[in-house]
Amino acid sequence: MAISTIPSAGITGGGFNFRNLIINGDMNIAQRGTSVAGLTNGSSQYLIDRFKWYEGGAPTYQFTMSQDTDVPTGQGFVKSLKLDCTTAQTSLGAADQNIIWQRMEAQFLQHLKYGTANAESLTLSFWVKSNKTGTYVVELYQNAPNRGLSKSYTINSANTWEKKTITYDGDPSGTINNTANAGLDVYFFLSAGSNYQSGTLATSWQTYSAGDECVGQVNLADSTDNNFWITGIQLEVGTTASDFEHLPYDVNLIRCMRYYFNHYTPDDNGLYGLFTAHTSSAGRMPYRFIVPMRDAPTVSSSTAGGFTWLGNNVSGNPSAIGSESLNKYSCTVNITGSFTQGYSYWLAGSTSTELRFDAEL
Amino acid sequence: MIQSVTKQYNSLNIADTYKVILINGDVLFVPHNEANRHYQEILEWVAQGNTITDPGA
Predict the structure, then answer these.
(1) In chain A, which residues have their Cβ closer than 8 Å to the Cβ of B42?
(2) Cross-chain CB nearest to A322 (options B19, B37, B38)
């Protein structure tokens, strides 16, 4: 049947057009784990894929970050990102900050047309819940030209899921290069010291000025009673918010794997790969990533002794796991053990072993 | 926080990776690639006056 008319709602209803510039906005993918405690000075890190908890200054507060099942009812979400203040800091240092943020890859943002008169507006929508009511700030930030635009929203009712929508103008003077590097950041502020609140909120694009970054921001760290949940984050072109684009779990996972991939085995003796004994102590395992990564990743692993090498009627535990020859498609995994040179072996793991590849921005 | 960085040579004797030991004991293998955020941290660490160990090929 030929299509003669495109409905006014467009052709996206019930389908996917990847209009959400945020990856994993439904907080469904958490390859690094589901909870991390003691977040404080010096412990900026990722937990839920693509979302980084960041602290600035020298704060004394502590938070636990987790993937939670508290979600807005009837919206199709199953997971949220939760922050629980476990050590309060009622008086912030001037430089103290606390942010949840995502950095978007530049080459996926060329249709925003930043740096031209046709720069597109963006609309951010998300669901949020906290006992700590009041003003919060979300900033868009371009790293290379050092430009920011901040907007505030209000949590009106304590412990109630609320949907927030914020529209940002495009930036005719901005720069988003066509690379696999940083393009645009979204900062969800949770607390901010006086260095970031001394001016006037930068509600139009401007060269970054710390004092204009998050004027009016409440301090989520001022009580151990404080909790904060967020999910359903969507950033899309235009001035109106559409319904959240729920991608299938597997599509969401593959998109996240471009930036981080944790190879674990769901059962004991799960295969990691086959390797050859380059020398009597050095195994070399060619390793191809499931999806091409953003760029050459950093490799790390769980304790080497938790892995097992087998072959030639012998087995053992590696004394070290390493890597070399890294690029965005593949690498060599190095296994240190006691081998017969030229023989082949396999590397197996258990439910507690991990081989991690990190190409986050 | 970086504790030490050692240049690592691959099987072809090309130095293409750095072994990084963090203060918390974690070990990272970082490519020589300016688009990698951990390599950027190595550059910052060196700019602070620290030295990369080179064991030679």
Answers:
(1) none
(2) B19
Phi, psi angle pair for A241, to nearest 5°: -95, 125
CA distance A235 to A153: 15
pLDDT tens for each residue of A320-360: 999 999 999 999 999 999 999 999 999 999 889 999 999 99
Three-state SS for A14? coil
Residue with tokens 């793991």: A349
pLDDT of residue A9: 46
Rounded Cα gap, residues B37 and A190, in angstroms = 24
Long-range CB contacts for residues A213-216, cutoff 8 Å, separation at least 24: A213/A137, A213/A139, A213/A148, A213/A150, A213/A189, A214/A137, A214/A139, A214/A150, A214/A189, A215/A137, A215/A150, A215/A152, A216/A135, A216/A137, A216/A152
Enumerate the domain spans of chain A.
35-257, 260-358
Residues written for chain A: 361
What is the chain B residue with the closest CA to A41?
B1
Model pTM score: 0.94
B-interface mutation test, from A289, A323, A335, most B Cβ less than 10 A away: A323
Token pair, residue A177, equals 């290069």
Q: How far is A236 from chain B (nearest CA, A)?
A: 26
Q: In this structure, what token pair is assigned to residue A254?
A: 């593959």
Assess contact for A216 and A117: CB atoms under 8 A. Answer: no
Bridge partner list, A101: A52, A187
| Distance to chain A for B43, nearest Cα, Å | 15
Decide yes or no: CATH 2.60.120.260 for domain A35-257: yes
